[in-house]
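Troubleshooting log. The previous structure file for this entry was overwritten by mistake, so regenerating from the original sequence record. Sequence copied from the archived sheet and checked twice against the printout by T.R.
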Amino acid sequence: MSLEPDWREALPTIPQGYRLEAALFTTFEPAQPELLVEHLLPSILSLHRGFESEPAARSLYFGELGLALQRLRGRLTVISSPASVARERDPDAATGAAYPWLWRYVAPFFTGARGAAIQHAKLWMLHWVSVDGSEDGDDALLEIVVSSANLTLASLKQQLQAGWRSLLTLGPRGTRANLSTWGPLPRFLEALGESAGEDAAARTQAFVSLLGRCACPEEVQFVASIPKAFQRSDEKSRWGVLALGKMAPEGRGPLRVHICTPFVGEWQGTALRQWSECLGADLADIALSWIVSLHPWAEPGAGGGWCMSRRTLDVFRSEGLVLRRLGYEAEGPASAFHDSHGLADRRWSHAKLYLLRRGRVRRLLVTSANFSASAWGTGDAGPRNFELGVLLDSAWPIQPDEEAFGEGHEVHTTDTVVQAAEAILSWGQALWDGGTVTVACRGRADAETPHARVSGAGPLTGAEIQLTADPKDSRQWTGTVPWEDGKHPPHTVIIACDEAMLEVPVLDMRSAEAFAQTPLPEIDPESAQALQDALLLESYGALTLEPEDLPTLSHGDASVLLSSGGGLAENYSVEAFTDARSLFLVVEAWAQRLQIAEACGDSEGKQRLLADGTRLAELFHRRAQKQTKAGARLPALLVAEELRWRLEEAKT
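Regenerated output below.
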């Protein structure tokens, strides 16, 4: 009996003995909140619980998730194309309506701040540090994933993807020698950050620094594209098809290329010939794997991602490019696409694969780049997209028995001509400093002045934002609107122009102290503070919080849960010595984390721990005040005093 593949296996998981320090994700479509909140984040954060739909368990999960995200604020980043650009190219692209509070913790940035640019790379970078040591040397890891998968549920559940993953040990400091082994990847990250704005550039630069602390794995080469506007004058050959041609296997004999991508851009004969010349291969030696019109992946709604226009097919045939047929017979099931792909598996391939072969040498490119001029460029006309792939020593991983299209096989094509066009609204950003929401957006030169409004959970939702043209840039508009309600932060700004609409999450730029006062997400406001306190106690080992404890927390004070048995303090008689010992263990756990933060030079982490210590001391003091017998008060009072003394020492 064969089991259905579990798509969750594609998600990164926590290496044993480590915790997440920072993460960078790139995707074409904006990240889908449901994927992050319900699957990805619990997979990479050190949570005791997973996502639950039952109300009590759900509250505990969201409470713990909110606290974990608060500790990582400013270190979780997603860079994508703007939502308007993604939807113009894919009308079924996911929207960000669910969990709008997520973007207070996970910062979304969009390419296009310095001119039109499509972010199409699929790169995940995760920085892991030891849970009980400094982040130097063997106590820190860098995980890198390069694939064809967007950060959406459909991408992981309904599509077949190709990817490469590596987990590398970080050295104590960066070196130029290490950085040079990564080829175009450091410059790719720098250009990507520049395109998404100053705040994004600072975050991508942090990961460039991490690359300097380890060497690229042997036998791996990165192949990247960046829009021509971001290329320096001396690095044209580092990007796109020119770079791929330089990495092709050397030797005698013709270079043969095999391509399998689900999307084929609009090609003209001249551009196609230029592309093959840059690659160093004759068109007769380039083969494209494609599907017949009866293939299940050609059915609207069943896959729909396999797209090539009839006009481009005619160009391929006239120029001599070879088409290879992915196995499928009308009277039977489709042949397995890959060894791990069962015949009954309805997922369609979103993988992008290029095999370069000369003689016996084979190099396989696993990439985000479709077969299009936008992805690769064609010589003087550089790429228009950000793309990223890895070149590996490997054979062709999919159907080895592909055949040519015969007279009885109709090539799958679409009537739509796939033509890249500049979006009416190409970029947007919204920042909130606790008092004002500041909005900026870019659009086409012929666009009318956009309209904007801000939404959130409070009474200010729906407020209109007056946008005015930037005197230095007629294609950019800016505007502000007051928003001082810290208990109900703004969520989203909707920017509209003609029929185009751009949905921009609001980035919370408040101080860490002000941010900490924001209510936990998805939690009843009446019990939110008590639940936050209880989860804080749990995080330092003071208790184990269960769903049945929630009614107690609805009375508004987590200190009543403090006892050596983990139940209600009023219902248990606890020896003073045992009680004091259990509470002092909480203080020791807190002090150990503070010591690690100080050793790492983590000033932001130290401030969070000092705030935790202050709250713990207050909880211990309230615990003592609730005891009716003087002897029962003593343990909590002693521990509260000890903690306050340590706080004063740490501050000085």
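Residues 564-574 have pLDDT under 50 and may be disordered. Archived copy saved in two places this time.
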